[in-house]
Amino acid sequence: xxxxxxxxxxxxxxxxxELLLEDREDLYYLALILDKGDIxxxxxxxxxxxxxxxxxxxxxxxxxxxxxxxxxxxxFQKFTDRLRILGKVVxxxxxxxxxxxxxxxxxxxxxxxxxxKKELRQLYLKLIDEAVKKTYKNLxxxxxxxxxxxxxxxxxxxxxxxxxxxxxxxKADFKKRSYMDEYREYFTTIVxxxxxxxxxxxxxxxxxxxPRFLQELFQNFLSEKHRKLLNLxxxxxxxxGGIAGIYELVRREELARLAKELRLDYEKKxxxxxxxxxxxxNKRLAIGLKEVAQAAKLGAIQKLLITDTKFIELKEKExxxxxxxxxxxxxxxxxxxxxxxxxxxxxxxxxxxxAFLYFPVS
Length: 362
Fold this sequence. Notes:
The protein is of the alpha+beta class. Helices cover about 35% and strands about 35% of the residues. The chain has a seven-stranded antiparallel sheet. A five-stranded mixed sheet has the order 10-9-8-11-12. It has a four-stranded mixed sheet with strand order 13-16-14-15, with helices on both faces. The chain has helices at about 25-35, 120-135, 180-200, 210-225, 225-230, 240-250, 255-260, 265-280, 290-295, 310-315, 320-330, 340-350; strands at about 5-10, 15-20, 40-50, 55-75, 85-90, 100-105, 110-115, 140-145, 145-155, 155-165, 205-210, 235, 285, 300-305, 335, 355.
C-alpha cells in the first residue's frame, strides 16, 4: 500500500520533529527540510576500536548505537533507499569516546529519526504537511517489441524499477503464426509482473504506454483472460517502447494532466511562464542567485522557483537562509521544482533559481 510520512512529535516552539520514515519519498522530503547545524538523532552503526595490548588500537566489530550528530552535509540520490547525513557527533554512549568526531548516519525506509532544527521555517512545515498527505503513486509500463520498462511516478520523479526483454525475433515468421501467438508468452510475462507490483503495493493508477499496434494487441490479449487488469489501466500511445518510451511519456501533456495531483503540471506551467516572460522582456523577474538575493532583500519576491538539487546545495553552503527569511517576511511563496523532469532541467539552465516579482528591481 502507499505509505505516508508519520509524525511522532512536532513541537514548533522548541523546533523538535520526530518522524517515522516509511519510503524513499520520505527520505526526499527529509533531505529538503534538513539544514546545516541541525541535530539529528537516530540508530546507526559504528565500528569500535579495540586495544589488544599492542599499543595500537585495531578495528573491532560494528555495533548498533543511538547517536546524535550536528549536520554538516546531506547526501541524497533520488530513487535510492538511503539518505546519508554527515556531521560531528554531539551525543553517543560514553564508552565509545567519539564526541566531537565525525560520523555518517545512513537513514533508510522504516527508520525513526529525531531532528532539533536550527530554524523551523513555515516552508519546512508546509513540506512536512505535503509529505504526510501524499497519496498518489502511479505504476508506468512502457511496452515495446524488444523490451518493456516498468517505472514508478511519484513526487520525487520517475524511477525505472524493472526492464523485461522479449524473446521475439526482430523478423518473426508471422506467416506461420499469428501476431498474438508470437507475443502471447511475452505478454504473459508482463501481466505476471504487473500483478506482482499490484500485490506488493497499492497504486492509484496503472498507466500502460505502447506504440499503437502493440497497445491494441495487448488490449486484445487482456480481454481474453485478464479483463480485471484491463479495467484498471489507462492506455497511452508512444512512438517507442521500453525505457525510451518512459522518458517520452514523462514529457507528454497527457501524463502532466494525469499527474496534476503530484503538482507536476503546476510546476511545469510556472517554469514555462518564466521563459515566456523572459522572451517578452518582462522586468518583474529575477534570474539566478545574485538577482534573487537582491530582490529578496528588497521584499520584491512574489514566488520563488528553485530546483530541489539547487535548494539542497545552497542550504549546505548557507547561502539560502537569508533569502528564505526575506521571502517569508514579504509573504512570498517558495516552490521547489523536481529536477528529474524536463521543466526542472529548463529551470536548471537559468541557474536552478528564478523568481516572479511584485515590482521590477533594477
